[in-house]
Amino acid sequence: MIREPAGRDWRTFALCADVDPEIFYPVDVRADAPAVQRAKRICTSCPVQTSCLLDVMAGEDPARRWGVIGATTPDERHALFLAQRPAVVRSGAVAA
Fold first, then answer.
1. Which end of the chain, N or C, is more open, meaning fewer C-beta atoms within 10 Å of its C-beta?
2. What's the domain count of the chain?
3. 48 phi and psi, to 5 degrees?
4. What is the pLDDT of residues 45-94, one digit of tens each?
């Protein structure tokens, strides 16, 4: 991950800033779809991919996941979201 100078946003270094944003919102979002693979190639070579993914995971509404972000599809981000939830939530236990 790139160390950002004070006051500079990670987006300044994002490779996606220089391409058509539509690339990251394909109709077919299956992980093996050609359009998704194209977007992921851009993301995986981006120096701020981790910052991008962390940012979206921190603020994305789980019911409204769209596009390829941080080299992940909506389904892949959903799996990451579920994996990071505390075990208590997964077990169904309720705090009193």
1. C
2. 1
3. -120, 25
4. 999 999 999 999 998 998 899 999 999 999 999 999 988 877 655 556 66
- Cα dihedral 18→24→25→28 (10° resolution): 140
Q: Under a CB-based contact definition with an 8 Å cutoff, are residues 36 and 72 in contact?
A: no
Residue 7 has pLDDT above 50, yes or no: no
Residue 5 lies in a domain: no
- Decide if 4 is inside a domain: no
Is residue 47 a contact partner of residue 16, using CB atoms and an 8 Å limit?
Answer: no
Q: How far, rounded to the nearest angstrom, does the alpha carbon of residue 24 sit from its chain's CA centroid? A: 11
Domain region containing 24: 10-91
Residue 34 identity (one-letter amino acid): P
Work out whether the CA dihedral 74, 77, 55, 82 comes out positive or negative: positive
- Asked whether residue 73 is domain-assigned, the answer is yes
Q: Looking at the domain assignment, is residue 2 inside a domain?
A: no
Q: What is the pTM of this model?
A: 0.78
